[in-house]
From TrEMBL:
<dbReference type="InterPro" id="IPR006702">
    <property type="entry name" value="CASP_dom"/>
</dbReference>
<feature type="transmembrane region" description="Helical">
    <location>
        <begin position="7"/>
        <end position="34"/>
    </location>
</feature>
<comment type="subunit">
    <text>Homodimer and heterodimers.</text>
</comment>
<feature type="domain" description="Casparian strip membrane protein">
    <location>
        <begin position="3"/>
        <end position="67"/>
    </location>
</feature>
<keyword id="KW-0472">Membrane</keyword>
<keyword id="KW-1003">Cell membrane</keyword>
<dbReference type="GO" id="GO:0005886">
    <property type="term" value="C:plasma membrane"/>
</dbReference>
<keyword id="KW-0812">Transmembrane</keyword>
<dbReference type="InterPro" id="IPR006459">
    <property type="entry name" value="CASP/CASPL"/>
</dbReference>
<comment type="similarity">
    <text>Belongs to the Casparian strip membrane proteins (CASP) family.</text>
</comment>
<protein>
    <recommendedName>
        <fullName>CASP-like protein</fullName>
    </recommendedName>
</protein>
<feature type="transmembrane region" description="Helical">
    <location>
        <begin position="59"/>
        <end position="83"/>
    </location>
</feature>
<keyword id="KW-1133">Transmembrane helix</keyword>
<dbReference type="Pfam" id="PF04535">
    <property type="entry name" value="CASP_dom"/>
</dbReference>
């Protein structure tokens, strides 16, 4: 897979993960309102009348958050594939030999020897 393809897969994984997470959060709020109601808005609880709906919706929310967990794992895998295509940054010899440059850097180097 090319770098461009790896970036595409990585971005789509991230977008889908966040969309599913947002959908699960909204669903959880709806089921919470169905279970508890909202006194300030004069909404009564609906699960007393529609118990079957609330049970199915609760199971659906559990499945949604399980899917979010799987998509997080997929995002980690695609980010590993993407960033393994790049080399680690290298430190040039001149930059490394000039360290430590000032007194604060010298004190830090003395406190934490390599």
């Amino acid at each position: 897979m090319s770098r461009r393809g790896a970036w595409t897969v990585f971005i789509f994984d991230e977008v889908v993960t966040y969309v599913i997470l947002a959908a699960g959060s909204v669903s959880a709020e709806v089921v919470y309102l169905a279970n508890k109601g909202d006194v300030a808005m004069t909404w009564s609880e609906a699960c007393g009348s529609y118990g079957g709906f609330c049970k199915k919706a609760t199971v659906s929310i559990g499945i949604t958050f399980s899917v979010v967990g799987f998509y997080v794992i997929l995002s980690h895998i695609s980010s590993y594939i993407l960033f393994s295509k790049y080399d680690a940054p290298s430190i040039s010899f001149t930059a490394a030999s000039s360290y430590p440059r000032n007194k604060q850097d010298q004190e830090m180097a003395a406190a934490f020897p390599a």
